[in-house]
Amino acid sequence: MELNQESQEKLQELQILENNLQNVLMQKQAFQMELGETINALEEIKNTNESIYKLVGTIMIKADKEKTLESLGEKKRILELRNESLDKQERLFEAKAKEIQGFLRNAINEKNIEKKE
């Protein structure tokens, strides 16, 4: 079945949107994993009375507990904001994709009706 120019453009737009959506979902998954690790680190540091250490390059150094908690807390806030932003992008891409899918469904149905007549 041959689609008109507008439908072909919409189909290409849908493919690009789906690709962008897949990229957003991969980024979101990576940020969620990092957020989970950050939350776990925060909890472990809060629950210990012992010295803490962190990796700097290939060496481990003693770290100040309060500064590390502050740093991890900030990292957590940033990751949460990034996740929220990616959630918004995901919803926008999904809504636009549904809109284009509806347009294409109508275009295909119209073509089928024309063929039957």
Summary, kept brief:
This protein is mainly alpha-helical. It is 80% helix and 9% strand. The chain has helices at residues 5-46, 65-116; strands at residues 52-56, 59-63.
Order of helices and strands: HEEH
Helical stretch tally: 2
For the record, what CATH class applies?
Mainly Alpha
Q: Helix share of residues?
A: over 70%
Shape: rod-shaped
Strand order of the main beta sheet, please? 1-2
How confident is the prediction overall: mean pLDDT? 93
Please report the total strand number as a whole number: 2
CATH-level-2 architecture:
Orthogonal Bundle
Task: State the secondary-structure class.
Answer: mainly alpha
State the end-to-end CA separation: 15 Å
The description of the largest β-sheet is: 2 strands, antiparallel
- As residue ranges, the low-confidence spans are none
Radius of gyration: 24 Å
Determine the strand fraction and express it as a percent band: 5-15%
What is the CATH T-level topology? Helix Hairpins
Number of domains: 1
Provide a descriptive summary of the structure in words:
The longest helix is centred in the last third of the chain and has 52 residues, at 65-116. The protein has two helices and two strands; from the N terminus they run αββα. It has helices spanning 5-46, 65-116, and strands at residues 52-56, 59-63. Strands 1-2 form a two-stranded antiparallel sheet. α1 (5-46) packs antiparallel against α2. With 117 residues, the chain is mainly α. The protein has a single domain, classed as Helix Hairpins (Orthogonal Bundle).
